[in-house]
Amino acid sequence: MPIVGTIMIENPVQSSYPPSRVYKLIQKDYGSEKAEQYLRRAREALFAFNQNIAENSVMTNIVNQLGLDRERIITGQKASLAKIYKLRSYASRKTWSPKFPDVYKGK
After folding, report:
1. According to the model, what pLDDT value does residue 37 have?
2. What are 21-74's pLDDT values in tens digits?
3. SS3 track for the chain
């Protein structure tokens, strides 16, 4: 599969988090096989077809190609992002910190 790569100049992917959340939701609801198919098509969209996979329209198109329930997945992805943001903002207010840091547990 040839890689075009101009997407990073023309319309760079700001975050891989939204497509990753869609992957995890598909994995949870439809199983690992469908999730792997989504991941394959997302990679093809990004590298071969030069599409920004962080955009809702591209994620929706991939989900539709797989024959999955688009509304359930996209709204689930948005709801999970809102839930995570709410939990993090609550924790940062509780600890009086401007940002809630990631936790690293060493030895």
Report:
1. 96
2. 888 888 888 999 999 999 999 999 988 888 999 998 999 999 999 999 887 777
3. CCCCCCHHHHCCCCCCHHHHHHHHHHHHHHCHHHHHHHHHHHHHHHHHCCCCCCCHHHHHHHHHHCCCCHHHHHHHHHHHHHHHHHHHHHHHHHHCCCCCCCCCCCC
- Polymer length of the chain: 107
pLDDT at 84 over 80: no
DSSP state letters, 28-51? HHH-HHHHHHHHHHHHIIIIIS--
Question: How far is the C-alpha of 19 from the C-alpha of 62, rounded, in Å?
Answer: 10
What angle do the packed helices 56-65 and 70-95 form, to 10 degrees? 140
